[in-house]
Amino acid sequence: MVNISSLPMWVIILASAVLLMVIFTKVLNIDVLGNISSMIMGLARNILASVSF
Predict the structure, then answer these.
(1) Element (H or E) spanning 9, and its range?
(2) CB 18, CB 41: distance < 8 Å
(3) Mind listing the pLDDT tens digit for each residue in 4-47?
(4) Torsion angle, CA of 11/13/18/21, rounded to 10 degrees?
(5) pLDDT category, 53, cuts 50, 70, 90?
(6) Would you state the pLDDT for residue 29?
(7) CA quadruple 44, 47, 52, 53: dihedral positive or negative?
């Protein structure tokens, strides 16, 4: 088991974004999703860029 509290915040955020993306893909299954996913990935990249490893 992975201890969630020991993970860096960006890992949790990234995992949540990916999970939401997958869920929306399954539920909505529409083209708008491409825009949403690229928006999420852009946000994730900004977060990763602002966080020092």
Answers:
(1) helix 9-28
(2) no
(3) 667 688 888 888 888 887 877 777 665 566 777 788 888 888 88
(4) 180
(5) low
(6) 65
(7) negative
Who's near 37: CB < 8 A, 6+ residues apart?
21, 25
- Max CA separation in the chain (angstroms): 37
AA identity, residue 37: S
The whole-angstrom distance between residue 52's C-alpha and the CA centroid of its chain comes to 18
- At position 38, the amino acid (one-letter code) is S
The span from the CA of 6 to the CA of 20, in Å, is 22
Instruction: Please choose, from the candidates 40, 12, 13, the residue with its C-alpha nearest in 3D space to the C-alpha of residue 25.
Output: 40
